[in-house]
Write a structure and sequence with these properties.
This protein has 221 residues and is an alpha+beta fold. It folds into two domains: 5-78 and 194-212, Glutaredoxin, CATH 3.40.30; 85-189, Up-down Bundle (Glutathione S-transferase Yfyf (Class Pi), Chain A, domain 2). The chain contains nine helices and five strands; from the N terminus they run E-H-E-H-E-E-H-H-H-H-H-H-H-E. It binds glutathione.
């Protein structure tokens, strides 16, 4: 096997953060885009829990997005080079809040029809509270802690993007989260975002290999 294999799903926020880490470290992978309602047998064989992303390296199968980011960081410290220890601690603390609380309320806000008796406004407000807290902790700069992308940026921005998508005009009208809105716009306008959102054909056993980052063949934009 020449390349690590990444099972991925374009719009999945967890897969997006894994693709960002991989891209930033300059690692090349074979990418296998999946349909969540028809996961490949091979993916389920190596990772029976059935979530994406799944990264298969020469030595191990990594099937948690944060573990993929940490594996990338163990090879190439691409995004923690310039930040202070307290920012590293804050990064871990905030990722935890986003993966647990924010995601919980986001699901009930964005996919309210999937839940029984949800109070959409309550969950919207809980997410906003978390963004207000984030607003008070980040710099007024390109990324959370300055000019360099950090583990925090790549971990939380895909979720903030989803939150905005649920009601973009409402999100854009929130005046107390200007730094967060700037951060999200910066992300959505970035080359990195464009690269990680490349569209791949759904992978099937025996299909020709597609690469991430894209080599611009065997895939369409
Ligand atoms: N804790 C996992 C969560 C991954 C996850 O839940 N991914 C979703 C897609 S966004 C998934 O694969 N869900 C399985 C399904 O919908 O069948 C991680 O961080 O990698």
């Amino acid at each position: 096997m020449n390349y690590p294999i990444l099972y991925s799903f374009k719009r999945c926020p967890y897969a997006m953060r894994a693709r960002m880490a991989i891209k930033l470290a300059g690692i090349e992978c074979e990418i296998r885009e999946v349909r969540l309602n028809n996961k490949p047998d091979h993916m389920l064989k190596v990772s029976p829990k059935g979530t994406v992303p799944v990264l298969i390296t020469k030595k191990k199968v990594i099937d948690e997005s944060l573990d993929i980011i940490n594996w990338v960081l163990s090879i190439d410290n691409v995004f923690e080079g310039n930040i202070e220890q307290n920012e590293i601690d804050l990064t871990e603390h905030l990722i935890n809040i986003f993966d647990n609380k924010f995601k919980y309320h986001l699901d009930r806000y964005k996919y309210s029809t999937r839940y029984k008796d949800v109070d959409l406004e309550f969950h919207q407000n809980q997410c906003l509270k978390i963004l207000n807290n984030l607003e008070s902790l980040i710099f007024n700069s390109e990324w959370c802690f300055g000019d360099q992308l950090n583990k925090l940026d790549i971990s939380i921005l895909p979720f903030i993007r989803q939150f905005r998508i649920a009601n973009s005009s409402w999100f854009d009208s929130q005046n107390e989260i200007t730094k967060v809105k700037k951060l999200l716009n910066n992300f959505l306008d970035s080359k990195l975002f464009e690269e990680i959102m490349h569209t791949y054909e759904i992978w099937e056993e025996g299909a020709e290999t597609s690469f991430f980052p894209s080599k611009n063949y065997n895939s369409k934009k």
